[in-house]
Amino acid sequence: MLRAAVGSVLYLALIALLSLGVAAAVREGAAAIGIILGLLYLFPILGQVAGSATSQRHLEQLAPMTAGLAIQATTGLHSLPISPWAGIGVLAGWAVAALLAGGILLRLRDA
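Above: the chain sequence. Below: its structure as tokens.
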């Protein structure tokens, strides 16, 4: 239970950092919101449409929302597409990539 509680807070913080990176890159509030919501919900939708169970599992492992939410699981950990801490790692990777891209683009445009 402690992992799920702490992980939920960590999940929300990483989503906020991902959003900050996208907002810094795009520099338009509405566009940033649209991109973030599209990014978070696109992978689960593609996973449902995917032809095979293997491709669905890979999409769930790469998706920032699905991978990050694995930290909240308290039962059935073996049936998850990714382990809880690895899922947070995937989300952290997305957040770092967005922050780097946003920082570089902000630096290039405002230099």
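The chain is about 80% helix and 0% strand.
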